[in-house]
Amino acid sequence: MNELIETQMAESIAKAWQETQAIVPDIRIREAAKALNSSEAQLVATMVGKEAIRLKSDWKNLLKRLPELGRVMSLTRNDACILEHKGVFEKVRVFGKKDHHMAIVIGPIETRIFLKSWHVAFAVKQQKKNRLLTSLQFFDHEGHAITKIYLEKESNYEAYEALVKDFKSNDQGKEQEVSVYPPEIYEKDLDIESLLQDWSNLKDTHDFFPMLKNHKAQRYHAVELAEGKFTYQVNISTVQEILEKASMRQLPIMIFVGNRGNLQIHQGTVRTIRLLERGHTSIEKWLNVLDPNFNMHLKMNLVHTAWVVSKPTNDGIITSVEFYDKKQRLIVQFFGLRKPGSTQNADWSALVSELPKVESSAIE
Fold this sequence. Notes:
single chain; alpha+beta; 10 helices
């Protein structure tokens, strides 16, 4: 692309974003990007040279430096749900190549990282009211945020500056190219009997995704086909019931929220559960976990269906409760906390059994 055209495009996006912020001062960058038919990465790129610095895409070595930052806040989200953990990147392991290039983070912050979708990153320092927010922000090829890491008061700011210096890209342009991912291709006429047979032969919960891939099955479609055998529907309001009962009983659970490039996991108890409303022209209902080192924010308006899903394993039946949006995309999953090699927590099984079933026809 011609350098002059690139500059003009970046200036046009920057001007439109500034005008949007002037009209709606508290607008979040994700909503602003949608309103401007742009992407978060493109908006952040307009800040390069002022509030943002482009980083090299040396993901392996950059990830291995994250423990140096000390205590931070790690945020991962999709359109409907956000997880935020405060803690340290205790242990980072990077392995594999190309489509199987991954990283696993273990500790107070726990994630599964899929590096084939990592495209661009920025170090950002942005003034928000009376606070200077210092962060590392990572985006996929479409410009959607994969994960963001914000420094806390206790963070190691010198380590942050050293990391930014070491990974500063030679390219500090304001134009950010994005590309649309091709649609996933699934088998429409699935061999249901074969799918369910392979489902019944699962040995580990981690075998579920490879099974779906082997059958070229879309996840939601497979869950529908397994209804009555391995799955059944519950009301979407059960997400609040799960959290409130887990809180009341101090039952440790696992919460999985992810996107194309990152899956963040909460492991432990939850305490403070709040359903809050916000908005002027349209009311948004947000179900929140508001604990000292862990927050979850779930936009209930976008939750369309809920399913209890059972998977046979060598450790017995493992049950999750999964919530999907209208486009049949997975929003969030809940499990009972357990260690590998252990059976499912009986208290979690009891909680799930208390969730009332819903007939398929009852959900539009």
